[in-house]
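Good morning N.,

You mentioned wanting to compare the apo and holo forms, so I went ahead and generated the holo version with flavin-adenine dinucleotide. This is what I fed in:
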Amino acid sequence: MYSTFASTTDADALEESPFLFDQAQDDLMSISGPHESPHLKPQAYNTVPMSGLNHFSYGQYNESTPSSIHLGDTCDLSDSISSGYVNGYERSYAPSPLHYPHTLRSSLLNGYSTKTSSNGDGKAGTDNPGLYNTNSLKFSDTIPVMHSSKEATASDNATASSPGVLSYDSKPSSTPELSHSKESLNPQQRSNSSPIKGKPSEFRANSSIPTALSWEEFARQTILAAESSRLNPFALHPEEYKLLREHVTHAQVTVYLNIRNAILRLWTRNPLVYVTLGEAVGCAREKRYFGLAQVAYQWLLRNGYINFGCVDIPNPTAAIPRRTKGGHQKTVIVIGAGMSGLGCARQLEGLLAQLGDHWVNEGGKAPKVIVLEARPRVGGRVYSHPLRNQNNSTIPEGHRCTAEMGAQIVTGFDHGNPLNALIRGQLGIPYHGLRDNTILYDHNGTIVERSHDTLVEKLYNDILERASVYRNKPATFRTVEGDRNLILFGRDPSDTGGASISTLENSNTPLPANANTTASTTEEKPSSGVEKLAGRAYQLTAGFNPNTTAAEAAIAMGWQLKPGASPNQTLELDKMAKSVDYPTLGETMDYGIKQYQEFIDLKPRDLRLLNWHHANLEYANAASVNQLSLSGWDQDIGNEFEGEHTQIIGGYQQVPRGLWQCPKKLDVRFKTVVKSIQYNTNEHYNGKSVKVECTNGEIFEADQVVLTTPLGVLKSGSINFHPPLPDWKQAVIERMGFGVLNKVILVYEEAFWEKDRDMFGLLNEAEHRESLDTKDYSLNRGHFYLFWNTIKTSGRPMLVALMAGDAAHYAEASSDDCLVKEVTGRLKQMFSPKSVPLPSETIITRWRKDPYARGSYSYVGPKTQVGDYDVMARPHGPLYFAGEATCGTHPATVHGAYLSGLRAAAEVIESLVGPLKIPNPLVEKKVKLEHPSQSNVPEARKMEPDPTQPSSRNALQLRDEDYEASIIGAILNEIGERPVKPGRAGINPFLLYTKDYWYICKQDCDEARRKDTGDPNAKASKTEIRSALGLMWRMASLEVKKPYLDQTQNARDDAAANAASFKERLASWDREAARIRQEYIRNNPPPGGNEDVILNSRTAIEMGAGKRLRRI
Ligand SMILES: Cc1cc2nc3c(=O)[nH]c(=O)nc-3n(C[C@H](O)[C@H](O)[C@H](O)COP(=O)(O)OP(=O)(O)OC[C@H]3O[C@@H](n4cnc5c(N)ncnc54)[C@H](O)[C@@H]3O)c2cc1C
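and this is what came out, ligand included:
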C-alpha cells in the first residue's frame, strides 16, 4: 500500500481506451476545485468518470492511505492522448491570438488540453478557439526560393535591414543563435537526402568558416563551442584518442581539434537545424583533411554532441517500401520514458534516420524503436503535477499551473548542459532565474542575521574541506593535447607529417620538441566546486590550506577562541576516517565539529545552523550525510555547469514531453509494466535475443533492450532477469546508494511570504532541546528545512517544503494531515503575526513507495566503489543500461539522465552498425606547391603573417617565445585563465520569436511547397522558412511582439550587470598576472638577458586572447 487512493494507483484500474483518456482530459480541464482545505472539507467530484482521476477529489482523502506521487501519475493522462498533430504541431496557424511565446508549442509540451479530436487519420483538429485560430496565413506567394544551410548565406544579406534577418553578433552566446547573416558561406543545398552523406566532389574546404571573422574571433567561438559541449577544446576526448591514435600524428591532432571545434560551433549556434556532413567537411582548411573532418563529424554525431534532441532530421530511407530480407527488421526496446529513456529513443531515431542506408543497402529497413513505460505519462521522475485549481494563474497563458513532484531546478545552462540546446535552443520553454537570496529562519521564527549565518557557513566549509583530503583520487585518462597556441589563434600547423601517435608511444623515440603542447598526457579532474541542487553551492575556497590549523582558520573566519585555547589546536579526523571500514562524510564531519567545540564556543543556534548545512547536503544527495561515502560522495566534482540556476515556467515535464513529441512522436507504449526480461548473450544467436514480458500480458521481442528503470527498481528485484544478471552487475546494483527526498507542496489563495524571494530556510531544533551534541540534530534537521517559493513558475501561490535526510523517510511514514498540520505550525511561527491559513491544496510525494522509482535518486554510499557508476552503465549482452545512476559525471540529475540516454544510444548504434570506420589514409599526403593554409581560402579573408609558424621566426624569437610560454604557464597555474568577457545578451526579439514559430511556420511553408510542386513529400527549405518568419514578424502586432521585446530587454539588463562584475575580475586578474610575471622573471632570469622587454610585455593570454578554459 503506497497510495492514498490505492484503488487508483493500480495501472490496471485505468481503462486503456483512448476515448477515456480524451474524456478524462476534458474533465481534467473543466474541474474547478474548491478553495477550502481538503483536510477540512472533503468534497468529491462525482462527475469524474474514472477512478484514475479521483485524486483530484480530495474528498477521497483518507488518513490511513497516505498519498504518493504515484497518484499524480494517474491523473496526467494528457500524455496518452493522441494529439493527432503532425510533427507535434497543429497545421493551421494564426499568430495574433497568442499572447505569449511558446503558446502553441506549450500546449503540447505542458500537456494542456486542446480538446483534440482524432479523426482517425492521424490528423486531429482543434476546437479550442482561445488558443488557435483556424485562419491560416499563407506565405507561398511571397517566399523566394533560396538555399539553406546551418549558417546563413551571403544572399541573406540582401534583407539585412529587415527584422526578419538577425543582426550580426560576433560574440557567441550561451543561448544558441540562429544563423548570422554576414557570414559569407558556401551554400549547402538541403534536401531530403541523408544529412550524413554527400558527394566528396561537392565538398569545399573552408566553406563553413566565415570570411568576415578574424581567425582569432573564429577560434574563440570554436573554443567556446567545445566547452559548451563538455569537450576540452585543446585535447582529444579519451575516446577520440583511442579512435585516432594509430591514424594521426601529433600535429594532426591540432588540425582535428580545429575541425571538431568548428563543427561544434555550427551546432551550438543553432541547434534547431542539424549539421550536415557537407557543412562539417567545410570546417577543414584543406582538402586533404576531409577524412579528419568526416571522422570528427561521425564521432560527434554518434556520441550525441551534435544533431541531438528535438531536431528534425530527414529520413530518406523511411519512404522506401519495406523489402526486408526474410521479413527481418531489428527492434530496439527502451524500457522507461523518463529523461534517459526518451533521450535515448529520440537519439536512436535521429541516428537511425541518418544511418538508414546501412540497412536499406542490404535490402532491409532501419530498426524500429519502441519505448515501454509503466506509467500513463512520460517524464518519470520529472513530473509536473497539474493543480486542481487552474484559475487566476500568474504564468503566461497556455501554461498549466503545476507542482514539481520530482526534478525542479536546472543547475545552470552554460558550459556543457545539454538541456541548454533542448530547453532554450529547440523547445523555447520559458524559465525563471533563481536568485541566491536565501534567508534562514530559526526554529522559533526569528530570522538569523546574515553575518552569523556566514560565520557558521565558513566553519562548515572548513570542516568539509578538511574532510575532503580523504577523497578518492579522480580517475585519469590518457589523451593527446593539440597545440594550444595554434588553436587559440585558429591556426593549423604547416607541417603535419611524422609518425603516428601510437608509433611514438610504443617506441622510445622522444616526443616532439614542443612536448608541452603535443605530448601524450593525462587529464585530471579539478578539485574545487561542489554542485548542489539547493539554493546554496558549497564552493570550496580557492587557496584552502590544510596546513593551517583549525584554530587559526577559525580566527581568520572571525571566531574567538575559548579562553586558554591555543592557535595550534587543529582537527584530527584520521581516527574517524581511517579506523572504520566504511567511513561516512557525516560521521567524520560531526567528529570535526566536536573537535572544534573544544576550542570555540559553539552555541545551540550554531549547531542548528551547521545541521541546516548537513540537511542541504542531504537534499543534494537524497540521503543522510551519515550514509554518504567519505571518499566518494562528491565523485562528480568539477563537472558543474555555469550560469544561474533556473526553474521551468509551467513545469519541467515540458522537457520530456518535448523529447517525446518533437519533431514527431516516439512510439511510447504507456501503462506497460515490464515484469521479466529473458535474454540471450550469445552473439551468434539467430533470432531476437530478448523477450520482454509485461504485467498486462504483452510480450515484446527485441534485438537490443535499453533498461532505464531507476536504480531503486533494479534493487527491488521487481523485474526478473532470465538468466539472472551476472554477479558484477548485481553486486554494483547492491553497492550503489539510492536515496529518498520528499516534498510537501502547499498551495494557497494568497501568498503570505515575500513573493520575490525564491527560497527560505528553516533551522530545526534537536531532539533534546538546545543540545550541544550535533548527533541530536540528525533526525529533525531535514524537516521542511527549505521552502521554495514557486509562485513565478507554478502560476499559483505555492510553497514547496523539502523533507531531506531522515525527514524524507518520516514523510513516507506520516499521514498528509499530520505533515500539513506540522508545516502550518512552523509557517505560523515564521510569519507571525501574519495569519497563515491551511493550504487550499496539498500534494505530498512519497518517492520510496512509488513502485516505478523506489526512491528519488542515486548517491555514493559507503560501500560504493570508484567507477561504480561506469559499471552500472556497462552493457551485458543485448542489455544496455541508462538512467541517472549510470552517469558518473552528472548523477542524480535530469541532464545526467539525458546524457546517459545519449551514451546508451551510441552503444546500441555501435552494436548495430559496428565501430566508426577510419578512412585509409586518414590524411592525404600534402600536394607539393600547394600553399599550406591558403589553398582554399576565399580571397576575402585577410591572412595575417602567422607568428606561430617556425618559418617566420628566428632562433632568438623562438627562445623568447619559449620563455614567454613558461611565464604564461606560471600565470595560468596560479590564477587560471583571464576572465572572459561575458557575451552580449545574445538574444534579440526576432530570435526568440523564431524559436516559437519555427515549426508552425515550417508546417505552412511545407504545405505551400507541396501545393506548388504537387509532391506530397516536398518540404520547404530553411531559407524559405526564415524569410516567411521575417515577414510574419514584420506583420505581427505590437501585442504579439511585446513579450519578445520584454525578454530581450531583461536579458540586456542582466548582461549589463554581468559586464560590470567582469571589469572588476579582469582588473584583479591583470594585477595578479603582472605580479606573477615579475616574480617569475626574478626567480628564473631569461637566458638572453632581455628582462626589461619581457618584464614589460604582456602575452596574448594576458591581453585576453586566451579564453577561460573549463578544465575537464
Ligand atoms: C524529489 C526529486 C527532486 C529532484 N530534483 C532535481 C532537480 O532539481 N534537478 C535535477 O537535475 N534533478 C533532480 N532530480 C533527479 C531527476 O529527476 C532524475 O535524475 C531524472 O529525472 C532521472 O531520469 P531517469 O530517466 O534516469 O529515470 P526516471 O525518470 O525515473 O525514468 C525511468 C522510467 O522507467 C519507468 N519504469 C520503472 N519501472 C518500470 C517497469 N517495470 N516497466 C516499465 N517502465 C518502468 C518509470 O515509470 C520511469 O518513467 C530530482 C528527483 C526527485 C525524485
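Residues 335-341, 372-375, 380-382, 406-409, 533, 673-674, 708-710, 713, 719, 741, 743, 847, 852-853, 856-857, 883-884, 892-894, 897 surround flavin-adenine dinucleotide (CB under 6 Å).

Happy to go through it together on a call whenever suits you.

Best,
F.
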